[in-house]
Design brief:
Length: 927
């Protein structure tokens, strides 16, 4: 019996059900290659639960079809034609008219080579890769982060950073909208995996590019989590609590609450996280986004193959470092999100968030620095206590004024408060072991920061397609107030004998304001069907004011009222750039490219009010840009882009202020700094084969910077005192190569991912007024294996090897060492309801010439759980660091220095916990 005859026979049994329906489902079938209508194809609607035929029709000579009187609900639309591959897609009918638009069908001849698959675990359509979440095995009540770890081409590291096809994921959306701001971790850590229907990975273009259709080369690797339809009705959430039994006041605990409620197009979500096991603390990237970070950074490579960014210059109200991988932290994180849409014209997204951290850490550090023929050995220990909190409020309002005009208003605020104290003790010796200096220091911080930003984007489409006009105005301000106290005892030695002592007892008061204004006007004009021109004009203004006053303690008055002129300064800056821009673009089905250039006219107006000096400079720069993309297959894409950009020195770098927070490592600002200019070249290629389930992607980037804002260090080998000052240097460049290859061994049902990588960085600085070239080469190779079976087992094995090499022109010796991390993760089910999971990590760090100890430690964790009532409830017991070997040791090379650092870490503990996953009454958990 033919497929068509069977459909007609089944239809006759159910035909009575269609007469009471109200909606019409329409669309057009075309040949995917020839774009011609597809005639006489069966178009059927199936019910998703049991795939029973609901109704069907046939396409007419123009390819049109019309399914009449369809009851509102969820369906699977299916087409069937003897010359074309079947097409299936899930749809929801909730309107009087449901238009599916044009559906391109692929001939069966080409179906094995190029196919858009609407079924199966993975499908590719254009630049979007979609994963059906239910086809990937995760444990009961797992979060989205666990799901992502199972998806081919996606990696989640131990710190929660996400990479897709070798690129860092910068945004995670939920049903196309931001979820608690733009922090990817909020969605993946707090949403349940069983609420997700589909995971989409794509390169999100800028708002401007999406509006004009002209690719500007600015993309962000993005993940969109599409929720199941039943999860978008009513409510769902979870409550989780765990604590350490039979312990004292310093016991471990975690409490988590997550709730989402949907009603029509309104969504309300809330979460509350509280604990002292280091969960959900602010990362370095978070601090940077919240205004607590610092852009004045240099790069080094640590022994795990990670890039380490550090600014050795001064920042007078710098936030204390909080590394949630080390130390002990008590964290409270709460947030609320409200989003709604009215009349398909107005959309509001409102997200308040509160975070509080109480952090303590003990840090010890050994650093060996080569200065000519002299080696300086520094030993220091530091005890840190930090209490900080911040409140953020983000709001986005979109309104469609009419069919041609729209407006987006964005506002963000952040209020940041920090109290901290640090106690440091240290000394420096020469290679003969004799003392050169000794220091005891206490530094307390009380700072407040307020960050406010807003933007308005107006967009207008003309009647002529691709002719557009837009205006984007943004502004932000950051106000910082710091009240710091420094007390230090500093002793100098000559030949190992005491020479002199300097005591410091000072109050440092800093007030700083940074304001940035930006106006961008853009007009695009089509030239034929595929070409277009874009004209833009941008004006930016950066204003900064810094008042920093240092007072000595007076024994006569008992107050800090003696102004130290050499450590005080008032400084203003104004930097204005005007940049006209022109760009030509070409867009076709497979090839897109654009190129153009802007001309920037920048003026510096710097005023040192303390010294009554003024610095004025003008610059003219070209800003070339070029982007090319080639979709040589439906599931393959090649992207190449080039961009030139400037970077302005910051207020901290320009202000001629001496920072004596560390008496033997002081810093100076430099008002003579120039802006830097960077040429960036990036290439990315990715391809995925549905039939063989293999993915292959390569990424290459190259950057070179002229007038790089680096630094000069003057090191006295006798006293071991260092004076650091930012300077401009040339001859700086870096490149990075990353390759990923993933495939499935079908006979073994084993997923394999292989990732070789290499990166190289050459930076130029100055040591004792002599140019110093630092060259860092890091190479690595990782392998990941995964095998799983639903409700039976889940096994993952990975190994990551890396080699780091560092050489400087100051020292002919090459610093080289290897590291290796072996990880095993096993989950085994017993009688479906019981699960035992355990993970094991073996980390090995090779000894070096400077540090003669091999650093090897083992981390072993385990968890036993039992689920009840259709997995609604879960009881569990877990043990962290069973072997009690969690050590916070790392080694890293930085220019002419190598450092071994150790931090206190949370070691062995056990907790008993209980989780309640709740949802609408009457709904059953999908297994």
């Amino acid at each position: 019996m033919s497929k068509t005859t069977l459909l007609i026979a089944i239809l006759s049994l159910f035909s009575f059900s269609v007469f009471a329906q109200k909606a019409n489902v329409t669309g057009v079938l075309t040949d995917g290659s020839e774009k011609t209508p597809v005639y006489n194809s069966v178009v059927a609607l199936l019910t998703p639960k049991d795939s029973i035929l609901y109704t069907f029709t046939r396409s007419d000579k123009k390819g049109n079809f019309d399914l009449k009187n369809v009851k509102a609900g969820n369906y699977i639309v299916m087409t069937s034609h003897r010359q074309y591959a079947d097409y299936l897609e899930d749809i929801t009918v909730n309107e009087t008219e449901k238009n599916l638009g044009t559906i391109p069908l692929l001939s069966k001849i080409n179906a094995l080579r190029e196919v858009i698959i609407k079924t199966g675990s993975i499908r590719i359509k254009g630049d979007t890769t979609s994963y059906r979440a239910s086809d990937f095995v995760v444990s009961a009540n797992a979060n989205v982060e666990e799901l992502l770890k199972k998806l081919p081409g996606i990696q989640v590291d131990k710190n929660g950073a996400i990479k897709a096809m070798g690129e860092t994921v910068q945004k995670v959306l939920v049903d196309g909208e931001e979820f608690f701001g733009d922090d990817p971790g909020m969605a993946v850590k707090n949403l349940r995996a069983d609420a997700v229907k589909e995971v989409q990975v794509f390169d999100k273009k800028s708002d401007q590019a999406e509006f004009t259709g002209i690719d500007d080369g600015e993309t962000k690797k993005t993940i969109n989590l599409k929720l199941k339809e039943d999860k978008k009705k009513g409510y769902f959430g979870k409550i989780d609590g765990a604590g350490e039994p039979l312990s004292g006041s310093d016991s471990r605990y975690n409490t988590n609450f997550m709730f989402s409620n949907f009603k029509g197009k309104r969504k309300i979500s809330a979460f509350l996280l509280n604990g002292n096991t280091g969960q959900d603390g602010l990362s370095w990237q978070d601090s940077d986004k919240f205004g607590g970070g610092n852009n004045d950074v240099s790069m080094s490579m640590d022994d795990d193959g990670n890039v380490d960014y550090e600014w050795t210059g001064g920042n007078n109200d710098e936030e204390p470092n909080v590394d949630t991988q080390n130390g002990f932290i008590k964290n409270t994180n709460a947030g609320l999100q409200y989003s709604n849409k009215w009349n398909d014209k107005q959309t509001l997204n409102l997200t308040p968030n509160y975070n509080k951290q109480i952090y303590t850490n003990n840090n010890s550090r050994k650093t060996q620095t080569q200065v000519g023929e002299t080696q300086l050995n520094e030993n220091a220990s530091k005890v840190s206590n930090v209490n900080r909190s911040n409140f953020k409020l983000n709001a986005i309002y979109d309104v469609k004024l009419d069919s041609l005009n729209s407006l987006r208003i964005t506002a963000k605020t952040n209020f940041y408060t920090t109290e901290s104290d640090e106690f440091t003790s240290g000394n420096t010796t020469g290679n003969d072991g004799l003392l050169k200096n000794k220091q005891l220091k206490t530094f307390t911080t009380d700072s407040d920061k307020t960050s406010i930003s807003a933007s308005i984007l107006y967009k207008h489409k003309f009647a002529k397609p691709r002719r557009t006009f837009s205006v984007n105005a943004t502004g932000n301000t950051l106000n910082s107030n710091a009240n710091n106290f420094l007390k230090s005892l500093n002793e100098s030695y000559e030949g190992g004998d005491f020479s002199n002592r300097v005591d410091v007892d000072q109050n440092k008061i800093g007030e700083k304001t940074n304001q940035n204004l930006n106006l961008n006007v853009t007009y695009s004009e089509p030239i034929g069907k595929k070409y277009a021109m874009q004209f833009a004009y941008q004006v930016t203004q950066n204003k900064g004011e810094s008042d920093y006053l240092t007072y000595d303690y007076s024994d006569l008055t008992g107050n800090y009222d003696v102004l130290v002129n050499s450590l005080s300064n008032q400084f203003n800056q104004t930097i204005i750039t005007n940049k006209p821009n022109i760009k030509l673009s070409y867009n076709s089905k497979k090839i897109n490219y654009n190129f153009g250039s802007g001309i920037g006219f920048t003026s510096f107006d710097l005023e040192d009010q303390t010294l009554n000096k003024e610095y004025k400079r003008n610059y003219t720069n070209f800003f070339p840009t070029a982007n090319f993309s080639y979709k040589y297959k439906s599931n393959s894409n090649l992207r190449i882009n080039y961009q030139g950009a400037t970077k302005q020195p910051t207020l901290d770098q320009l202000q001629p202020l001496r920072d004596n927070q560390d008496f033997f490592n002081q810093t100076l600002g430099n008002p003579d700094l120039k802006q830097s200019f960077t040429n960036s070249f990036n290439l990315f290629n990715s391809t995925y084969s549905i039939l063989t389930e293999t993915q292959f992607y390569q990424s290459f980037s190259y950057r070179t910077t002229s007038n790089l804002i680096s630094y000069s260090r003057v090191i006295d080998p006798e006293s071991a005192q260092t004076i650091t000052k930012p300077i401009n240097t040339n001859g700086n460049y870096s490149f990075n190569l990353y390759v990923g290859y993933g495939f499935k061994l079908k006979k073994l049902d084993l997923q394999v991912n292989i990732n070789p990588n290499i990166n190289y960085n050459k930076s130029v600085n100055s040591i004792n007024l002599s140019t110093n070239d630092s060259k860092i080469l890091n190479s690595g190779f990782s392998v990941y294996l995964n095998k799983s079976k639903a409700k039976k087992y889940d096994i993952s094995l990975s190994n990551n090897f890396s080699n780091s090499r560092n050489a400087t022109s100051q020292n002919d010796e090459i610093k080289s060492f290897n590291t290796n991390n072996l990880a095993l993760d096993i989950g085994v089910y017993f009688r479906e309801k019981w699960k035992l999971s355990t993970d094991y990590n073996l980390s090995s760090r090779q000894k070096t010439v400077d540090f003669q100890d091999n650093l090897t430690n083992q981390l072993w964790n385990a968890r036993l759980q039992r689920t009840f009532k259709n997995d609604e409830f879960t009881a569990y017991i877990l043990v962290n660091d069973i072997l009690n070997q969690n050590i916070g040791i790392r080694r890293y090379v930085y220019e002419n220095s190598i450092t071994e650092e150790q931090n206190s870490r949370l070691k062995r503990y056990a907790m008993i916990g209980f989780t309640w996953n709740f949802k609408n009454k009457g709904e059953k958990t999908n297994k």
